[in-house]
Design brief:
- This protein has one domain (about 5-90): NAD(P)-binding Rossmann-like Domain (Rossmann fold), CATH 3.40.50.
- It has about 110 residues and is an alpha/beta fold.
- It has helices at about 15-25, 40-50, 65-75, and strands spanning about 5-10, 30-35, 55-60, 85.
- It contains 3 helices and 4 strands; from the N terminus they run E-H-E-H-E-H-E.
Length: about 110
C-alpha cells in the first residue's frame, strides 16, 4: 500500500523557494516532479531526498521556451499531479486558470 499523499509538480525547483517547497513536500509524503533549467541542481536535491523512499522525477525545462513549456504542459496533462507549485520566475496577468500557456516573442 502506498503512503504517498500524491504528486507535486514544482517549477523553479532547482534553488531557493522551489527547492524548499520540494524538501517540505517530500518530508510530508508527496512524490515530486521537479521542473527547472538546471539538471545538476535538481539531481543534487533528488539525491538528498531519495532516502525518503518517494518517487522523484526531473524535468529539465526553461519556461521561456515554447517546446519546454509544452513538455511541462504535457506532464501536467498526464492526470497524476495533485499539487502544483508554480514558482518559476515569471508572472501572469490574472489567475492561473484564466491564462493559457504563456508564449514569448521569438520562442
Amino acid at each position: 500500500m502506498s503512503t504517498t499523499k500524491g504528486t507535486a509538480l514544482i517549477t523553479g525547483a532547482s534553488a531557493g523557494i522551489g527547492a524548499v517547497y520540494a524538501d517540505r513536500l517530500a518530508t510530508r509524503g508527496f512524490d515530486l516532479v521537479l521542473v527547472a533549467r538546471d539538471r545538476a541542481k535538481m539531481e543534487a536535491l533528488s539525491s538528498r531526498l531519495k532516502n525518503l523512499g518517494l518517487k522523484i522525477e526531473i524535468l529539465v525545462a526553461d519556461l521561456t521556451k515554447s517546446e519546454d513549456l509544452d513538455a511541462v504542459e504535457a506532464r501536467l496533462s498526464a492526470g497524476d499531479i495533485s499539487l502544483l507549485v508554480n514558482n518559476a520566475g515569471m508572472s501572469l496577468n490574472g489567475s492561473l486558470l484564466e491564462n493559457g500557456a504563456p508564449r514569448f516573442p521569438g520562442s
